[in-house]
Amino acid sequence: xxTRRLVLTLTGIAVALIVVLGGLTIALLAxxxxxxxxxxxxxxxxxxxxxxxxxxxxxxxxxxxLFGADPITLxxxxxxxxxxxxxxxxxxxxxxxxxxxxxxxxxxxxxxxVSPDGKVYTxxxxxxxxxxxxxxxxxxxxxxxxxxxxxxxxxxxxxGEVYLDDIAGADEFIAGSATEVSGIKALNxxxxxxxxxxxxxxxxxxxTYPTSYVVDRREVGDATCFEGADWTLSPNxxxxxxxxxxxxxxxxxxxxxxxxxxxxxxxxxxxxYLLAGGSALVMYENDEIDITGVGVNDIDRIRDSNEPLxxxxxxxxxxxxxxxxxxxxxxxxxxVRVRQALAMATDRQLVSETVLKDLAIPATGVLxxxxxxxxxxxxxxxxxPEAARALLDEAxxxxxxxDVTLLTSGQGAAPSEALAAITALWEENLxxxxxxxxxxxxxxxxxxxxxxxxxxxxxxxxxYPDPQNFLEIKLHSExxxxxxxxxxxxxxxxxxxxxxxADEAERIRLYQEAEELIIEDAxxxxxxHGQYNALVKPYVNDFLLPPFVIPRLRYVSIER
Amino acid sequence: MxxxxxxxxxxxxxxxxxxxxxxxxxxxxxxxxxxxxxxIQAGPRARxxxxxxxxxxxxxxxxxxEQYARYVSNFVQGDFGESVRYRGVDVEDVILPRLWxxxxxxxxxxxxxxxxxxxxxxxxxxxxxTWMDPFSIGTLVLFASVPVLVSVPLLQWLFAVKLGWLPTxxxxxxxxxxxxxxxxxxxxxxxxxxxxLVGVAGIARYMRSQVLDVLDQxxxxxxxxxxxxxxxxxxxxxxxxxxxxxxxxxxxDLAGLFTGALILETLLGIPGIGLYAFESISxxxxxxxxxxxxxxxxxxxxxxxAVDIAYGFIDPRIRLSAEARR
Lengths: 560, 326
Prior knowledge:
- The structure holds 2 protein chains of 2 kinds.
- By secondary structure, chain A is an alpha+beta fold.
- Chain A has helices at 2-32, 82-91, 140-151, 160-164, 170-175, 203-207, 217-220, 280-285, 299-303, 336-344, 348-354, 385-395, 417-430, 441-449, 468-475, 489-500, 504-521, and strands spanning 63-67, 96-98, 104-106, 109-114, 120-125, 184-188, 191-195, 241-247, 251-256, 270-274, 291-293, 313-317, 320-326, 361-362, 406-409, 436-439, 455-461, 524-529, 531-536, 540-541, 557-558.
- Chain B has helices at residues 2-32, 37-41, 48-57, 64-76, 91-126, 132-145, 148-162, 189-215, 218-225, 230-243, 246-256, 262-268, 273-282, 286-314, 321-324; strands at residues 174-176, 179-181.
- Chain B starts with a helix and ends with a helix.
- At the A-B interface, helix 1, helix 4, helix 8 and helix 14 of A face helix 2, helix 3, helix 5, helix 7 and helix 10 of B.
């Protein structure tokens, strides 16, 4: 009896083994189907151009496959991150948007007029913009609803007022003393009038951001950013693409909206984002995705002209600036000489060439290339170790740095190589040893927010191509995003003048003047401007690599 | 049998208590950890006063016992909360599909590890003193020593890029008799292979040492002295007794079925629970964290209970405490 039971048990294990292995083999053969000859050896060639193994169901005609991440939210009023915005600008649309040349163009608005004092914008809406479900057209009142919803505190959007409180009456509405935003008027179905508090010239730029995009009020109801948001899983938008399917953590499928109101209409039939992660470059080489970013570890290989992938390599600026920020109200960095000393002991060129392999452009100023007002001739504080040392000695010498740490966000064991190189340069040139302290992102944000730091490393990326987006937001003494507490009345004055100046050349001049003062005061050590490095399959045409999020998929075509 | 029933009952009564303690600790750890989901997801543009206002509205500034009471009250009504990482999705709708993914590949790995480890370990023990013993165990240990972080990219390079037999990763489920099954797709081969390579060595070595122990026992010598053939001796006396301690390992592995392998899931792009646990911690998705931890605690307790019961059946020397005390 005993033996029999044991034999049975062992047989059971063996059967399980056979079933599992057999199942796997059958699955392998079944999915292998037509491309059996891939296993013959000839299918796999030296250059990694192996037989494609579909990860998903067969590609449909005109399908683009991209590497992606699940958006946090597809509610335009709530999105605060680029990942979410990337999807939203394709599914929804607003009054205006950026075109492929980064120019603001009318979108759902067919045209707009601006009053002579620059405060009243009258948008004339197209009468042929239909929601994806085909049920009805977009009217001016939909915009009034959508913008007020984004501003409404009950919606709990963290960005609503950031992008929209230039509108007259927004403050009263947020405070609860008004039931509507007085500056937004739907004059009739086709005409929307928006009045702003101050004649800021970048107001249209701000309207390109998803926050003011139109949503279907019947679908949204009284959903907030956090509750009742299930409508975002199959949103009813007006953008160039429609949501076809979203399998959480796995894939998002968008399909073309043939009735889209702008030209060019989408040429792609379908865009599939693979969301589960994985190794993007390997997936790209295996033809599972059509576009991938390239990191610093692979860049040497891709740049090699003998490498077949070299022909698919594309690059573009990202309109951002990474920098070291100082706490300018506490010692030792309340002393401008100490800040200047560190800035002048930073050899960005060397770090860029060696550690970053020229993937980033050394920064001399705050504004990145591509932003109007970017000053090519700005010299900034020169790299001059001797002058730096003299400044530091004058201010009190390396002893000042006893309690100084460089705060950065990170989860890895080692901090970024660029930062390590920069602190090594300081040690070499100034004899100061500054430890790098890594904090988990949430903790880091809170410490920066509360001024709980001596110095930190951070970056800033453009929302829209305007110098205000950098200089005023980050360095005006009254801006909430000025985390260095930098305050220079002269700079504030220049920035205030520039904000509403209608003369473009004058405006740029004011910003450039402010930037020079800022660099001299050194609340920041600007480090680098970033770059996109991507591989794009040869059959994909017109895939843009814009410096910030714009609706770009409708320009893309596939030619096999 | 009556003893068994009351034993199981008493153990089951402990389950809510343990869950309560685990939930209090996890809840407190989450809330006392710096930052929260409003702040983390607010984006760099958001204003501090806006963040503070939303925090207040969402009750994140309330005393922690009030927040906990609210959580428990929702929980017992079957409302596990809405994810803030995947806004608009209920926590259970995010977690269950991911748990299913992890469970599938882990189950296959579990079966494979034991199905290969047990025979190989026994075989190696019986060949002690020959080159085959250190060779087989050594090879397995070599595989086990290579971290997944290294082995997965190597396997990807070899089987996906060079040979083109397998996709580089991903997870593809298809509907088989109404159930979404992912382990029958090519995508499942790499993760299962990689984890099995790591797991087999442990089982094989353990089995080998158990078999060696048993081989020295008097009853084995007796069996041989009786003139029994080698096969019955090995199967009936050696393997059976050597298998007893392995049952504990099965238990731990059963509980581990629900624990995703973060690195593996990241590298291979598998939407499993390991990846999600990590994501929900980084985004302070409180309700998801609670659900994952509580589910883990529940499964672990049930697995342990199952093993204790199974022990009584397998090993006559061990009787459940209820009976023993009589």
